[in-house]
Write a structure and sequence with these properties.
This protein is an alpha+beta fold. The protein contains 15 helices and 22 strands. Among the domains are: 99 residues, OB fold (Dihydrolipoamide Acetyltransferase, E2P) (Beta Barrel), CATH 2.40.50.140; 143 residues, GAD-like domain (Gyrase A, domain 2). The radius of gyration is 31 Å and the shape is globular.
Amino acid sequence: MKRTVVCGALRGIDAGKTVVLNGWVHRKRDHGGISFINLRDRYGITQLVVDPEGMDPSEWADLSSVTQELRNEFCIAAEGRVRKRPDTMVNPDMPTGEIEVLARKILILNRCETLPFQIDAEEAREELRLKYRYLDLRSAAMQNRIRLRSETAFAVREYMTASGFYEIETPTFIRSTPEGARDYLVPSRLYPGHFYALPQSPQLYKQLLMVSGFDKYFQIARCYRDEDARGDRQPEFTQIDIEMSFAGREDILAMTEGLMGHVFKKVLNYPLPARFTRLSYKQAMELYGSDKPDLRFDLAMQDFSPYVGAGSFQAFKDALAQGEAEKAEAASKGVRLAGGAVKALLVPGQAAYSRKQIEELEAQAKVYKAKGLAWMKVNGTEEAPVLEGGVSRFFTTNAAEIIRGLGAKPGDLILIAADARWKTANIALGAVRSKLGKDLGLTLPKAGEAPRFEFVWIVDFPLFEWNEEENHWEAAHHLFSWPQDQFHAVLEQDPGSVLGDLYDLVLNGYELASGSIRIHDSELQKRIFNIVGIGAQDAEKKFGFLTNAFKFGAPPHGGIAPGLDRLVMIMAGETSIKEVIAFPKNSFAQSLMDESPSEATEKQLEELHLIIKKEE
C-alpha cells in the first residue's frame, strides 16, 4: 500500500489507472451507503468514493467496516481506480476536481484522537495553534506559507550562487559582544565561569571573511536576541546575510535589487522595477514621519511652520520657540539638534471625520510623545474655500494662504502636530499617517488587482545619536559603519553632523534589510570607539580579534542582511512572522509545544558549575 501517486497529481487523463494514495482524511461524507472521503497530503486533495456496486460481498464487508471507522485526520492508504466525474459533478475549485478514485481497499496506517481544533479552522486560538503546532502545520494555509518560505530560500541561493557568492557558515557559539540587545549565553562545562554567546548576527565573522579573501559571501543565518516580549519579535530569527569586498554602496544596492527582482519573479511571478525609489533619512522623516515609510499610498506630510507666525495659536509658537532655545543650548555643548517643528497632514476628502475618529488619531499621536493633534476642516466652495472647526479660529488672517500652500480643497481634513523636537513632531504625525492608511484601506489592492509591493531605499542616516540620559554619543546602527568620506575631518568636533554609508531597504512599511559600508581601517575604527566612549583597553577586550585583523591588509567591504522571516511574511500577505515560521515562540519567547525554556536538573547545573538564585 505504498503510494504510487500523490493526492494533488491526478487529472482527467489518468482515468482508468489503478493507483495507491497515502494521506490524511480531510473530510468524510456518507450518502445512502456510499461514502465520499477527501484524502489530503501536502500536494493537494483527491476525492475517494466508497461504493458497493460491483464489489464481492466479502470485500465490501471489509471495506465498509474500515470506512465506518474513519474519522478526520486518520492516516490511511487507499487503492482504487481513477474515473472521471460526470460534467455536472466536476469541482472547479479543486485541481483534482475532474476525477475521483473508486476505492477498493483502505488500510488505516494510524488513528487520530479527538482533535483540539479542526484543521483549517480559522477560529482556532493562537495558543492552541502553537501548542499543537504539528497539527496546525497540516492546514493548507500553513503548508502554502512554508512552501513559499522554502521556494524563497531556494531562489535566494540560486541568485547568490549564480552571482559568484560562496555560502559560508559562521559559528553559532561566539564571544559576547555589545550589539544593541542582550545576548543568549551558553555556559561552558569545560571552562567554569565562562560562557559562549549565540550570535545576534554574523557581523564580525562576515567581516573577517572579507579579510580572508572571500570577496562574495552569503549565508541564510540563524540569529538570536534576548529581547523583552514586544510586538511580533522572535528570540531566534533568520536573515539573508551578505557581504562584498571592493564594493561601494551602489554595488550593494544594485545587487540587492537584483536579488529581490529574482525572488519575486521566481516565486510570485511578480515583476519588480530594476531600480527602487530612494529617499534620504531626512526626506523620509520630513515626508512620512518614519524611516520605514509605506509608499503604497501618498499622504506626504508638509511643513506648517511658515503659517505659524501670522496665526495666534500659542502652542505652535511655543513649540518652535522652545525648539530654538534647546537647539542653541545644545550647540553650546557641541551637540547638534534640529529644533522644533510643526507638521501638517492633508487628508483628501475626509472632512466628514467625526470628533471621535479624530480623537482616535490623536491617541495614536500621543503614543509617540505628541502633546496633542490639532485639526481643521476645509469647507466652502472651490472658488471660496474656508477653514472651519478645530484650531481654524486661530488662523483667520492667513486661512487663504494655508489652503493654497497645502493644496487643500473643500472636503479635506488637515491634521497638525507640533513639538519642540523635530523628530517627535514628525514621528507622531507619521504614526497618524500610518493609521489612516490602514483605516481608509489605502494599503489594500483595488478590486481585481494583485497585491502591491513598494520598495524604497532609505540612505544617508546619521552615524551617531546623542543619548540625553547618559550624555554621550551612541552609534545609530552599529560601531563598524563607515562615515561618509566628507565627514572624516569633523568626526570628533561635530559627531551630530556625520552621515554614515548606511542604507535600509523598506517594503510596504516594514524594514526589510539594513546594511552599511564597513570600516576597514583600524585607526578610523579607534576614532569611532573613542567618540562613543569605548576606550582602547575595552575595545581590545571586546573587538580585538576584529580590529587586529584590519591591520593585515583588510579590503574595503560592505554588506546587507534582509530578514527572511519578514520577507516571506510580506510576500504571503501576512502581518505576523509566526505565520511563516514552522515552530515559532509565542510573544513571551516560550514554546508552548515543547514547554521551553525548561528547568535544568541539579546534575546539569553541577556539571556547569552553576547555582540558581531563587527569587524571594
